[in-house]
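Task 17 of the worksheet. Students: predict the tertiary structure of the chain below and write it out as structure tokens. Keep your answer in the requested format; marks are given for formatting as well as content.
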Amino acid sequence: MSSNNRSDKVIKQFYHTLDSDIAETLNDEQKRAIEHAVKSMGLVARHSIDIRETVPWFGKRFYFVFLCGRDHRKQVRERSKLVHFVLTLLILIGVVSISLLAMLALYLIKSALGIDIFKGFSFGIWDWFKGLSL
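Model answer:
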């Protein structure tokens, strides 16, 4: 679908949802300004990555959307405290997970090389890991 068709659909939908009494009072200059604003809001933008899927789950259907692309907006969107908290939490979980996996990998490499840092002490992870690989 071309950008003009997409823009036309968004603008047509806008006028469809706008109260008809109000739409009739708009002059041509106001309509052009509104259409320009709607187009510049990013509602008709194309994204580099645009994945939209639905997934059946226990008799219901859920959808997810993953969009990624360059931000062409002039104003920065304000984020709520909840969004900041969730992003911080996700980053923290990611950093902790990567750190733990790196430490596990280093421990397994140390154990595979037979390096014993504390004499007579072991977490038992190496024995468990060897049992899995058989």
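Marker's comment: The first helix runs from residue 3 to 17. The mean pLDDT is 83.
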